[in-house]
Write a structure and sequence with these properties.
- Chain B: One of its GO terms (molecular function) is heme binding.
- The complex is a heterodimer of chains A (474) and B (728).
- Chain A contains 12 helices and 17 strands.
- With 474 residues, chain A is an alpha/beta fold.
- Chain A has a domain of 320 residues: 3-Layer(aba) Sandwich (Alkaline Phosphatase, subunit A), CATH 3.40.720.10.
- About 2% of the residues of chain B have low confidence.
- The two termini of chain B are 43 Å apart.
- The chains are: A alpha/beta (474), B mainly alpha (728).
């Protein structure tokens, strides 16, 4: 890369550095700095977190089978739902009067904090003191795609930028050899909201999340075609950039300098992406910790990959694990079927991630967030007015559990509480926009100041809402 | 000069400058130029359309003059010293000072406001809401030159023939010229050669494709419904056919408008006019189980309203869904008056996308007619030719396309204001009407009346907004930079005279003919300038708003694909028809369960132009997204041009570009003579219409040798050169 470096050096010294940054419009790499320049006013305090790992359980797991223990609901199991809980409410599938459905699995208290967790979480129950539970999160959306969009873009319709796009737009990337916003997908398939969940909306396209794929090239087109070795690629890029340099001398357009830089970055990315994504180089004890099997498409592999990306200073690492939609309409979508499999897939892996980040000192400035797009009803789902064959619950946005850790979040605490049956939050509710404001806050960004003008209006991730949840900040 | 002296001279200079621009000589304060920006920046946030703190708003004149809740009048016309506004902005009392907890106004700003009030506090209509007027029209170059001279600049020299050929071919048809076309033009000594070239390009079938690709972003065209299930819209391509055909026929823009917005309501509409209404059926349909159809029907209607106002009026109506416009004089209720025009169609977010109509596209119809003629002319009904034509005729099928249809009589919908924009919260009943800041409509209170009102020649925005869109496509920037916002928060035009001249000319002299408009633009000296830039020009006009040089911008995603296909000879020049699936890596479409698979098209269809690429909203074609094609979920006026390493990876490694490189290499070696140098020159000419100079050639030769003669690698380098990725 000597030649490329030299060339770059010459090109840059031809102009004042600042002018260069202003002129090199919009590269992933150039962005690190120009992003900072354009949004410096959105930065406020010293950031507690440098990066985010967001573990989204697409399909919405039941909080009532995992964290929000409701003994009273057990007593009401099978009894008809009181009309007061149904009046004026909109549900996705529940019709008429459904029956209440008690917790399907036993719960115990764990750790110094005595936090409740169900028996389905033998691993995670050991680290409950290391996280902050949010028990009364609420959202306005009760269908998957709109609710996922709401969680990740701040609005329920398509077309807005993802949180990771906002963050890289506001803060830039910390490692120009890897994308600043990376997406890892496991489970049944991609989440309901599709790639719109990591689209850049109206922000420039280089802020979109880049999916690191488990099969084929990790990043699309990162691999050279057959017959083109790394040396040959280097030669080819040198030729491109030499001619481009000559072009710049002749026509003077600073955009050419930006292009020269992008080709150099692309070359680096071709090396860093395969290296960063190769989990097979990890030692056995790490595979044991996460439950990983190299070569598989799995949540565990993605958790380990997330740690590797965090180590390499990727700014926003978004995981999706799909298959939680436990309506009870079939075995796969039921609490005693698919749900159990999903929990088993995540229990060890997410626990391993927390332990591993902690032992490497990464947890301090890495914010980890876990949750679905909404929760599930305390009632059994009864589409068509009759109870389903399998046990399951309907979509429910009024109260659900999420947890956070690292990045300056208080640990060993539970924030928020639901009523005796887990229907609604009765204390310290956290709206999705509050959650978003808090995530941005931990990154040192004021959610009200991180704006972008589109269609004549200043948009922000939190729309015109959101308040930082100060109580959970260490 | 020593430092001190420089400072003194500087201070005097500043003082003089301040003296002149503050108009201390008793000059009249210009409301739009001087006052409005101060109000927008400092006051309207709390005293505008969204909030009227203390009952005060500066957005509507009558409210601004009235006494606020305090009983005091913010503005007493003719008397600044009695105006509470002036007291407040001058106050240092933290309880009184305005704007609160913000930087105070500068002395200059305060002076402007004082003088404005003393001079009568006249509000003026925002420039874009006043009908353009030109007394003695000049021409594009004269208006540009006037601005250049004012700024101490002059036109650049004319670009070379080769550059101009490539530029105008890509601008008008989206395709680079073929080698034959290049030779023909370069050897044409006719003084009208360039104009003849322009005429040929304007009559090319590919002209319609190029402009359809632009319009598809505005129409948020996609082959699927969006959201969780993202079901396919298998017949919507017939609307794209309509678009290509309409551009190719140069359907006058007023008719183009009316047919897309309300073709179904025309008297005895033709099939084509009904097909055109699919424009507004490109809204999304949410088919996820458990969704409320009415919620998403409302979302679609709101999208239609916002899209219509953005596309034709450059007005950000979306702001008014929840409250009055923060900066422009549009009241909350007026959103619903306009909404009522669109709220009476039959569609209702059903997964079937009904209502639909079984239609042939205009191109299909034309082709069927020609086939029929051919078939009739064949006497031997047993011949293979006859059978082949018959089977082709039969294979051209009509398809059910989602279209607009109006609810009639008793089934008509009543429109109510949504309180704070919430569709579940109903306010007053409203009737269809156009907003007050624009001329009143004298037409029927339905979509057809609305469409006629847009294009009757009395609307101050329509023609300006549209010529600005086409100008931006050619020059890279609009005359109004914010294509989507001609309101007071948009960027004021650098050259309003030119914009107004073009707007009037387009609707009055060109009779809404886009081809005439484009011809006038590309024949101008302004357009034909060289795009070479120097430090002085960069210093004075970095983004080329003043147009002292020709346009130099990155090609669009579609251009980049099409160019590689043309240069390599793989290109399929078939026009019209269903969407196609070029190569896409496995697994990209693994978006939801049980969906159609992505199967690469065959028989040349995999090499069709970019605009025919199958567009799935939740998983759009990856390499085109990387080159800034919007996902087409909502209307997008302006693509933001980026420059990223991922783009380099596409043009180097995407199998589409690898295949094109191999085919280009093949052409170089078989058609480019026997000598290496002549082969390299030939390849270079295929992509850039000219031969490389010695230094460039040397680079290519060197790579050829170090790669042991890997011509496809050299060809790939050609496709990756900055000059090739750019239009210059």
């Amino acid at each position: 890369m000597k030649i490329l470096n030299e060339l770059q050096g010459r090109a840059q010294s031809a102009m004042k550095r600042r002018e260069f940054l202003k002129n090199t419009s919009l590269g992933l790499g150039g962005m690190a700095l120009s992003g900072l320049l354009s949004n410096v006013q959105a930065k406020q305090v010293m950031p507690k977190a440098k990066r985010v790992i967001f573990l989204h359980m697409a399909g919405a797991p039941s909080q009532l089978e995992l964290f929000d223990y409701k003994p009273l609901l057990q007593k009401l199991d099978g009894k008809p739902c009181p009309p007061s809980l149904l009046k004026g409410k909109r549900f996705a599938f529940i019709q008429g009067v459904p029956d209440m459905l008690g917790p399907q699995f036993p719960f115990k208290q764990y750790g110094q904090t005595g936090s409740w967790a169900s028996d389905l979480l033998p691993n995670f129950s050991k680290v409950v003191d290391d996280v902050c539970f949010l028990k009364a999160v609420h959202t306005e959306e009760f269908n998957h795609a709109p609710a996922q969009l709401f969680m990740h873009t701040g609005g329920p319709r398509l077309g807005r930028p993802a949180m990771g796009s906002w963050v890289t737009y506001g803060l830039g990337s910390m490692n120009e050899n890897l994308p600043g916003f990376v997406v890892l997908v496991s489970g049944q398939s991609a989440p309901s909201g599709g790639k719109s969940l990591w689209g850049s909306g109206f922000l420039p396209s280089h802020y979109q999340g880049v999916e690191l794929r488990s099969k084929g090239d990790a990043v699309l087109y990162v691999k050279n075609p057959d017959g083109v070795s790394r040396d040959l690629r280097k030669e080819a890029i040198t030729t491109i950039n030499n001619i481009n340099k000559q072009e710049y001398d002749e026509v003077g357009d600073p955009e050419i300098l930006a292009r020269i830089k992008q080709y150099e970055l692309a070359f680096k990315m071709q090396m860093t992406v395969p290296e960063a994504t190769d989990i097979s180089s990890e030692p056995d004890y790490i595979h044991e910790l996460y439950g990983t099997e190299p070569g598989k498409i799995s949540f565990a592999n993605n958790c380990l990959l997330a740690r590797r990306l965090a180590e390499r200073d990727v700014r926003f690492i978004q995981l999706y694990h799909r298959g939680w939609d436990s309506h009870g309409s079939n075995n796969f979508e039921s609490l005693h079927g698919g749900f159990l499999e999903r929990v088993e897939e995540i229990d060890k892996a997410m626990t391993g991630l927390i332990i591993d980040l902690k032992q490497r000192g990464l947890l301090e400035d890495t914010l980890v967030v876990w949750g679905g797009e909404f929760g599930r009803t305390p009632m059994q789902e009864n589409r068509g007015g009759v109870s389903n064959k399998f046990k399951g619950r309907d979509h429910h946005g009024e109260a659900f559990t999420m947890w956070m850790t690292g990045g300056g979040i208080k640990t060993g605490m539970t924030f928020g509480e639901t009523d005796d049956i887990g229907y609604a939050g009765i204390r310290d509710r956290v709206h999705i926009h509050d959650l978003q404001a808090t995530i941005l806050n931990q990154l040192g960004v004021d959610h009200e100041k991180l704006t972008y003008t589109f269609q004549g209006r200043d948009f922000r991730l939190t729309d015109v809402h959101g308040r930082v949840v100060k109580d959970i900040i260490a | 000069m020593n430092k001190k002296l420089i400072i003194i001279v500087g201070v005097i200079g500043l003082a003089l400058f301040a003296y002149f621009i503050s108009g201390n000589s008793g000059e009249k304060v210009d409301f739009n130029e001087q006052v409005r920006p101060i109000l927008n920046k400092n006051c309207l946030g709390c005293h505008g359309g969204v909030k009227q703190q203390s009952g005060l708003s500066f957005l509507f004149i009558e409210e601004a003059y009235e006494a606020a809740k305090s009983g005091k009048r913010a503005i007493v016309p003719g008397n600044a010293s009695k105006s509470e506004m002036i007291h407040r902005i001058k106050s240092t009392d933290p309880d009184l000072m305005m704007p609160p907890s913000q930087e105070p106004l500068t002395p200059k700003e305060i002076e402007i406001l004082e003088k404005w009030i003393d001079q009568g506090a006249k509000f003026e209509t925002h420039w874009a809401y006043v009908m353009p007027e030109i007394e003695e029209p000049l021409n594009i170059d004269a208006y540009v030159e006037e601005n250049l001279v004012k700024n101490g600049l002059s036109f650049s020299e004319e670009a070379s023939k080769e550059t101009l050929l490539r530029r105008v071919s890509i601008d008008l048809t989206g395709l680079p010229p073929t080698l034959e076309e290049t030779e023909a033009f370069l050897n044409d000594t006719d003084p009208n050669a360039y104009e003849n070239l322009v005429d040929r390009l304007l009559s090319s079938q590919h002209y319609g494709e190029r402009w359809a690709a632009m319009w598809m972003d505005l129409a948020r065209y996609a082959d699927s419904q969006g959201y969780q299930k993202d079901r396919l819209r298998k017949n919507i391509w017939r609307y794209r056919d309509w678009l290509i055909h309409a551009f190719n026929q140069d359907l006058p823009f007023d008719e183009f408008t009316i047919e897309q917005l309300a073709g179904d309501l025309l008297p005895e509409p033709t099939e084509d006019q009904i097909l055109a209404t699919a424009f507004h059926r490109n809204t999304m349909t949410n088919d996820e189980g458990g969704t409320d159809d009415e919620e998403y029907r409302v979302a679609a209607v709101i999208d239609r309203l916002n899209t219509t106002f953005e596309v034709w009026q450059g007005t950000t109506m979306a702001c008014v869904q929840c409250h009055s416009h923060p900066y422009d004089p549009i009241r909350h209720k007026e959103f619903y008056n306009a909404y009522a025009y669109f709220n009476n169609s039959v569609d209702s977010d059903l997964s079937s996308d009904v209502p639909k109509k079984v239609l042939f596209s205009p191109a299909q119809k034309a082709y069927r007619a020609s086939l029929k003629k051919q078939i009739e002319s064949i006497s031997d009904t047993l011949s293979d030719e006859y059978k082949a034509k018959i089977s082709e005729f039969v294979s051209l099928k009509a398809g059910a396309v989602p279209i607009m249809e109006e609810l009639k009589g008793d089934s008509s919908r009543v429109t109510r204001v949504f309180v704070r924009g919430n569709w579940l919260s109903h306010g007053d009943t409203v009737i269809a009407d156009t907003p007050d800041f624009l001329p009143p409509s004298e037409y029927s209170k339905d979509r057809l009346g609305f469409a006629k009102w847009l294009v009757d020649g009395k609307n101050p925005l329509t023609s300006r907004v549209i010529v600005n869109r086409f100008w931006e496509q050619i020059f890279g920037n609009g005359l109004v930079y914010t294509l989507e916002d001609f309101g007071t928060q948009g960027v004021k035009p650098e050259n309003q005279k030119l914009l107004d001249y073009l707007a009037l000319r387009f609707q009055n002299e060109h009779d809404w003919s886009l081809k005439s408009l484009l011809k006038e633009i590309v024949l101008s000296r302004t357009y034909k300038q060289s795009s070479v830039v120097n430090d002085e020009l960069l210093e004075k006009d970095k983004y080329n708003y003043l147009l002292a040089r020709g346009p130099r911008y990155r090609l669009t995603a579609e251009n980049i694909r099409d160019q590689a296909l043309v240069a390599s000879g793989l290109f399929s020049d078939k026009v019209y028809g269903p969407s196609v699936k070029p190569h896409q890596p496995d697994g990209v479409w693994n978006v939801i369960r049980h969906v159609d698979r992505w199967t690469t098209s065959e028989n040349g269809d995999q090499y069709r132009r970019g605009l025919y690429t199958f567009w799935r909203r939740v998983s759009p074609y990856p390499s085109m997204i990387t080159f800034d094609v919007p996902s087409r979920e909502v209307c997008v006026s302006r693509r933001i041009r980026t420059n990223t390493p991922l783009q380099a990876l596409v043009t180097m490694n995407d199998p589409v570009f690898v295949e094109a490189s191999e085919a280009l290499a093949e052409r170089m070696m078989t058609e480019g003579g026997t000598e290496l140098e002549s082969q390299l020159k030939y390849g270079y000419k295929l992509v850039l219409m000219k031969e490389p100079d010695d230094k460039r050639l040397e680079e290519l030769v060197k790579l050829y040798h170090t790669s042991d003669g890997a011509m496809s690698l050299v060809a790939n380098v050609l496709l990756n050169l900055d000059e090739v990725i750019m239009k210059s």
